[in-house]
Design brief:
With 150 residues, the chain is mainly alpha-helical. The protein contains 6 helices and 3 strands, in the order ααβααββαα. It has a 3-stranded antiparallel sheet with strand order 1-3-2.
């Protein structure tokens, strides 16, 4: 182990690049023709439940008309459904259908399988190192999410 001081900026840079590349590669491998935004919307609906189109647009950082178009395509594919918002009759809530839930779970399993394939030549010690990193990445994600929300 080196006695040189830790360069937190370099670690943050390397982590951002590595995690971004991994996310992109897993999305490509598991995506089966859907856009990254479509997968993120399906995942968000699975995790958080029904949401307004405008809220999905804000969350995904796209214009509302762009999100409306995506929701229409996902509706046509029977992945989502829209219902009137009981709190505001002018708005609608988007939720996953059973087919949409199966689709996002299949996507996640395909991504996990790709990741497992990438790890299959790692030693037990290397896999243990990765296992210790996961809670740290989850803490970073929670901190970043809290800062964005707050």
């Amino acid at each position: 182990m080196s006695d040189a001081p830790l360069d937190a900026g370099a670690v943050a840079t390397d982590l951002a690049l590595a995690s971004g590349t991994m996310s992109r590669l897993l999305g490509q491998a598991a995506g089966q023709g859907r856009s990254v935004t479509a997968w993120r919307v399906l995942s968000s609906l699975d995790r958080l439940g029904a949401q307004r189109v405008g809220d999905l647009a804000i969350e995904q950082r796209v214009a509302q008309p762009t999100m409306t178009g995506l929701i229409i395509r996902l509706e046509n594919d029977h992945m989502v459904q829209r219902e009137a918002d009981p709190k505001d009759g002018r708005a609608s809530l988007v939720s996953l259908t059973g087919a949409g839930r199966e689709e996002i779970h299949g996507y996640r399993q395909r991504a996990i399988n790709v990741l497992l394939g990438g790890m299959d030549e790692f030693s037990e010690a290397e896999q243990q190192t990765l296992a210790r990193v996961v809670p740290l990445m989850l803490r970073i994600n929670e901190r970043i999410a809290a800062d964005l929300d707050g």
